[in-house]
Amino acid sequence: MKIAGRWFERKEMADGVTLLWEPHVHPLIRCNIWFVRGRDRDLLIDTGVGVASLRDEIADLIDKPLVAVATHIHYDHVGCLHEFETRLMHRLEAPRMEHYREFAALTVSGFPPELRASLSGYGLGDGDAVLLDALPHEGYDIATYRVTSTRATGLIGEGDVVDLGDRHFSIFHLPGHSPGSVGLWEQASRTLFSGDAIYDGPLLDELPDSDIATYLATIRRLRGMDVNVVHGGHDPSFGRTRLVEICDAYLALRG
Question: What is the DSSP code (8-state) at residue 198?
């Protein structure tokens, strides 16, 4: 397998937001990583799969205290969480991050059979398929991949606020995809960072810790939001019209 010349890519978005992603990771586990600039501190939302250092990648962006938030603890979102001093996550999932025993694999053969079956339509390939198309560096051994356990330095839940000084993000508890899924809502700009609660792709609701009935309530809540832009955990960002379309499609499927 080839060696990647660069592991992360980035794009400057509007309103002081930088999107980072891992282009050599299979789309199913290629999460969006969001860096948000604030006056007194900056915000990092999710941290990728952890096969290369995110902290090293964003060293040029860090010039003040940084708050890292995990929207949930599925492995594609917390791989580099341990690299950051301030780590916030929902109280329902934080204990599971301390001694990480969640499913995590870079090969299709590493997926439990029942999970592999439920994801058969997502282009995973056969059992020998690797979910990377390059290695981060010479000598990297895919078989040794693990998520590094780490402890939350703060617990967040519905109604809490992440304060950057000039920007304020309210925490929305958005369970269903996972029990402790959260979104971050900036009222002033009507911007929602939604994690995997909603994004512009097939929503996963049959994972081991998913709950469809709970997810339906979350989707109904999201449908009623007056958003300007949604920055999801995967796939491109979108506006209010597309939000309603995604929600209505899910409600028609599961409601």
Answer: S
